[in-house]
Amino acid sequence: MNGGFHEFGPLIGEDLLARHGDGDWRAVAALAPSLTEIDGVQGLRCAVWAPNARSVALVGDFNAWDPRRHPMRLRHMAGVWEFFLPGVRGGDRYKFAVLGADGVLRWKADPLARRTESPPGTASVVHDASLLAWSDRDWCAGRAARQHPGQPISIYEVHAGSWAFQEGDGEPWEQLGERLPAYAQALGFTHVELLPIMEHPFGGSWGYQPLGLFAPAARYGTPRGFAHFVGRCHAAGVGVILDWVPSHFPEDAHGLEHFDGTPLYEHADPREGHHPDWHSAIYNLGRNEVKAMLLASAHYWLDEYHVDGLRVDAVASMLYRDYSRAPGQWIPNRYGGRENLESIDFLRELTGSVRARGDGAMTVAEESTAWPGVTKPAGEGGLGFDYKWNMGWMHDTLQYMRRDPVHRRYHHGDLAFGLQYAFSERFVLPLSHDEVVHGKGSLASKMGGEPDRRLDALRAYLAFMWVHPGKKLLFMGGEIAQWREWNHDAVVHWDLLDHPAHRGVQRLVGRLNQLYRERASLHASDADASGFSWTVGDDAENSVFAFERCAPGHAPVLAVCNFTPVPHPGYVVGASCGVLWRLLLDSGGPGGTPAAPRNIPARQEPAHGRPFSLTLDLPGASTLLLAPGSLDDE
Domain named Glycosyl hydrolase family 13 catalytic: which ranges (predicted)? Predict the structure, then answer.
């Protein structure tokens, strides 16, 4: 196996090399490792961008990891080294031996590797893409309609390694494929969102410190296993969203840092290139080749694995040059401001290129500041994302629910404040993994008040969330009211389902998703102020809220929330229709089922600015949902 470029001509065309240097992400595929045939010979074609290296050699299982055996050819115009080696097979491990500009020999994993070995191993692995097969054409064809802002989107967030994996029962992707799609479907979720599954050296980072931006993490199985999982989700009618991290990367020796003996992927100045919170390196998005690699990664997951969307992590850290930095520890932009202009351009190119695909794939921003226009089109000055996580709503409402119910009257605005900006962006309401780790406690344990009433409060809060404007996201374990906060080394506390109260929370989530799908008034106008109107927003003394959700051509849904354990019999609420109203959901009932299904007649007595009114018996710590129509309409 001594052959190489000596027997073969240039592997990459000059036009592709020029496009790569210009930042065209489509040209990155020309550098990607692939098993291919050249002049009738089967082998591995690979390339790597290392413009400042003195030399680069291909090393691996096929040459006893000897850097003298297969030196690579430099294409000077682009700083790209290339090689074709006959006889390499799928599953062979390899790296690049890079003699840097500083004279140091570094053994680097392939930044474009499609497969890696599992940690603590750090080698890239030759991937045979022919092993992937798909049968989800109809699903992909209908994606754009399903993910339109006027459709219900309810997301179940999952960490692949700790949902329900059992040692010895097959690889995690196989286990997840057998159970997770059916579980999410049964509870009515439209999507699962996976914490980053791109290869990452440290499991404790949960995937948010990735190095292999094109490789499914080997700790969870093979690329074929991940593709099979996505196919199983689609077959069950469940979309797949991946968390994706273009903001920073870990400084492991086999990774991107000082790749060719110089700061290549990262900024040279630590005021730009080192992240003080995460002790990681920050991508230099001012370099065309770096930007192209990241964009190519985003499209690779959409193309190769048919995923339905990307949730972009840590967008706020990308937008501000002074993010988490003290005065004097950051470099202003060329105009003297704090905005990161290169990141803004990158994010706009990302969202624009995903939208230009025309296949309905969506982008979601985790952006925690008040940056304007995150979901506004780039052509109108925005960033162009389809949705933005509403971190302010999450913070304010959880802060309210943490309080003892007797004190909530003094903080009434915490729950209502989100409605002041609810329609400024297309939002996702996130009860995510970040809120149930590092001593923050689980959702159930956050609820204030008497311990034996916490599940009542949680059910009322979840019901409030599901009828509040915005798409929904719930992290695993929240749907069964897990008491223990999330631990990535332990699975969800499934045995809680042996207890009726916890199973009741799970059934409630399923019922909420059902109503959310069935009732267009709960989802069709999520980003339109006309779809929401307050009925009772000022009853701080009783901690009661009431509001209507509506959509053109559809019956409204009235939500009435009582956030104290004190019942309020005979509570009068304004109503928009003078008909019988049907009780759809009582969060205090088993799984949200009203304890006594019944019709409630509207009276011709105005209240709260509405022409009619309803008299309700409000249970303590509960949310009621009502809609015009009688039980006979079923």
Answer: 157-523
Beta strands at 309-312 and 362-365: parallel, antiparallel or unpaired: parallel
From the list 117, 313, 396, 526, the catalytic residue is 313
Q: Quick one: CA dihedral 85, 87, 90, 94, positive or negative?
A: negative
Match 């309020």 to its residue by tokens.
Answer: 568
Q: How far apart (Å, rounded) are the C-alpha atoms in residues 578 and 612?
A: 6
Give the residue among 569, 548, 564, 582 at the shortest CA–CA distance from 616. 569
Closest among 145, 255, 154 to 199, alpha carbons compared: 255
Give dist(CA 367, CA 390) in Å, integer.
Answer: 8
Assess whether pLDDT exceeds 70 at residue 632: no
Active site residue 541: no
Give the separation between CA 337 and CA 554, rounded to whole angstroms: 48
Percent of the chain predicted with pLDDT > 90 = 91
Residue 177: helix, strand or coil by DSSP? helix
Instruction: Tell me the pTM.
Output: 0.96
Looking only at Cα atoms, what is the longest distance across the chain?
A: 91
Which pLDDT score is estimated for 229? Answer: 96
Q: For residue 487, which of 416, 415, 438, 537 has the smallest C-alpha distance? A: 438
Residue 454 has pLDDT above 60, yes or no: yes
* Residues listed for the chain: 634
**Backbone phi and psi for residue 500, each to the nearest 5 degrees, phi listed first:** -55, -35
- Cα 415 to Cα 396: distance, rounded to the nearest angstrom: 6
In the block, tokens 């008909």 appear at 579
d(CA 385, CA 527): 14
Alpha carbon dihedral 445, 451, 457, 458, in 10-degree steps, equals 30
3-state secondary structure 349-384: HHHHHHHHCCCCCEEEECCCCCCCCCCCCHHHCCCC
d(CA 148, CA 143): 9
| Calpha distance 183→189 (Å, rounded) | 9
List 366, 414, 456, 479, catalytic entry: 366
In contact, 545 and 551? CB cutoff 8 Å:
no
CB neighbourhood size of 464 (10 A)? 19
Q: Could you tell me which residues are beta bridge partners of residue 124?
A: 94, 116
What's the CA gap between 175 and 182, in Å, rounded?
12
Sign of CA dihedral 495, 496, 502, 506: negative
pLDDT above 80 (res 630):
no
Structure tokens at 352: 């624009």
266 flagged as catalytic: no
Q: How far is residue 234's CA from residue 137's CA, in Å, rounded to a whole number?
A: 10
